[in-house]
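Q: I'm building a small set of examples for a reading group on sequence design. Run inverse folding on the following structure and report the sequence directly after it, with nothing in between.
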């Protein structure tokens, strides 16, 4: 996710469709988060999300401070400033969109696993992917990319990136299915969130 933060401003033009570099690699991280929720349960998945947000926040704050301090001493400093002077938008986006979207993903995977009694992982994975990707893009891109693109361009970026992410999720299905089986076998666990509290604030509480 730190890689996604760094590449959030890099956009590829592919046949007039705009795709962010961060959007191209996000699906891999989403897959890992989904596997954590599937194998270890909601509580451990949420803990990893909080740790991820904490690490992202440190990274974004330090990069922003370094890029905006003494910007005119060396030529490279000017380039750093030009690229990251409003990186605080990414920080705000991280604090809002990442927890919300990942919490939703873990919630969907957890609830549907209990409902389907551990079956139909393919459907659960795709449904969670479609919803989570939409929530993430609709909450993060308007914050981090506003002012850099027109409304039409921003809509183009969001719609194209969402479609691309869902397509990548479909392509990654064989890997997802294989990893879930392998990790469950290695860890010798397949957690079900019976009577689980879905309050993300309580994720670090010890179960009684």
């Amino acid at each position: 996710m730190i890689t996604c933060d760094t590449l959030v401003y890099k956009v590829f033009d592919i046949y007039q469709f705009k795709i962010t570099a961060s959007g191209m690699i996000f699906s891999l991280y989403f897959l890992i988060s989904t596997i954590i929720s599937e194998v270890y349960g909601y509580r451990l998945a949420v803990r990893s999300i909080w740790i991820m947000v904490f690490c992202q926040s440190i990274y974004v704050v330090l990069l922003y401070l370094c890029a905006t301090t003494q910007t005119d001493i060396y030529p490279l400093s000017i380039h750093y400033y030009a690229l990251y002077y409003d990186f605080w938008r990414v920080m705000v986006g991280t604090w809002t969109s990442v927890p919300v979207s990942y919490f939703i993903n873990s919630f969907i995977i957890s609830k549907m696993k209990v409902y389907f009694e551990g079956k139909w992982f393919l459907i659960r994975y795709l449904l969670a992917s479609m919803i989570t990707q939409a929530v993430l893009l609709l909450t993060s891109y308007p914050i981090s990319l506003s002012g850099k693109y027109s409304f039409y361009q921003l809509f183009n970026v969001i719609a194209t990136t969402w479609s691309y992410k869902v397509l990548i999720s479909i392509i990654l299905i064989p890997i997802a299915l294989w990893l879930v089986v392998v990790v469950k076998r290695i860890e010798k666990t397949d957690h079900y969130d019976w009577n689980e509290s879905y309050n993300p604030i309580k994720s670090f509480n010890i179960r009684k």
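The CA atoms of residues 71 and 79 lie 9 Å apart.
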